[in-house]
Design a protein that fits this description.
alpha/beta; 2 domains; 8 helices
Length: 283
């Protein structure tokens, strides 16, 4: 069906190419959630810009696909994969240790996350706890372990980038764990900026819905449940309140991360980049 929504395959010419002095093979960028979606696109975008990327995810097969795509696209930088579960502190520490052996840890992109939809009265607390560990505690712990490496370079240039959401600005019902985590990640972003002391800066990126495999599957399920087309799900269910009623591609989000990490964004510190098609701030 022409109406079906698909997760797009990334093309090399879609990746933002940045001339940034700090983007070099001896600089390491850790990217979480790199086994699919925005995390994979960000890992590929940073590798294209000559960085050494430590791509981490709990999904080992997804990481293998990220490596395969890097080779297919013939990207200039390296991608090294580290399988890890962000709900375990030991795995978090191991990710940073592995990254430190590859070069100077300069960038951290906290992108991993997941969703669960249920009313507050029915929300399973074990799921709530897991979501907070992956989307709040792990980014905090990763930053804690990375900051000493970032501060130790001859030319301080450490940057922590966090995946936020319109749900860090604007909540919707039945998503209490996700809403809470995304508001918290903005607090973490600003806390890192406050303590960066000119050595480390931070920023977050907020989007509405993105064509990740997770979202695309939700669209198909919703279309079937409601008896409407997938295009109608996007325009009338997901993005009814936005001015731009189309989904972002993962590479568009990845390019925002790449720009924010680069020297071109050196005054971006503690702020949130809101790419939501007018969803949040217009009515």
């Amino acid at each position: 069906m022409a109406d079906e929504i698909h997760s797009p395959e990334l093309d090399r010419d879609e990746i933002l190419t940045l001339e940034s002095p700090q983007f070099s093979p001896d600089r390491v960028a850790i990217v979480t959630g790199a086994g699919s979606g925005i995390g994979r696109a960000t890992a590929l975008a940073l590798a294209h810009n000559r960085l050494t990327v430590v791509a981490t995810d709990v999904d080992e097969e997804g990481l293998e696909e990220t490596e395969r795509r890097k080779e297919e696209l013939d990207l200039r930088g390296a991608i090294e994969t580290v399988t890890g579960d962000l709900t375990y502190d030991g795995d978090v520490e191991s990710i940073v240790t592995a990254a430190s052996e590859l070069g100077e840890i300069t960038y951290l992109a906290n992108i991993a996350g997941f969703q669960h939809v249920a009313p507050l009265e029915e929300f399973p607390m074990e799921t709530y706890d897991a979501m907070q560990r992956v989307m709040v505690r792990a980014p905090t712990l990763l930053a804690k372990h990375c900051l000493p490496h970032m501060r130790g370079g001859e030319e301080p240039a450490g940057v922590v980038a966090n995946m936020c959401s319109i749900h860090g600005h604007y909540v919707t019902r039945d998503k209490v764990a996700y809403n809470t985590a995304k508001f918290a990640i903005r607090g973490l972003t600003q806390s890192i900026a406050a303590e960066g002391d000119g050595d480390v800066r931070s920023f977050s990126v907020s989007t509405a819905y993105v064509k990740t495999p997770l979202v695309v599957n939700q669209i198909a399920d919703t279309a079937q449940q409601r008896g409407i087309s997938e295009r109608e799900v996007v325009e009338k269910v997901m993005l009814e309140e936005a001015r731009t009623t189309e989904l972002m591609d993962p590479i568009e989000v990845a390019n925002a991360f790449a720009f924010g990490l680069s020297d071109h964004a050196r005054f971006l510190n503690g702020a949130d980049l809101l790419f939501d098609g007018g969803y949040t701030l217009t009515y």
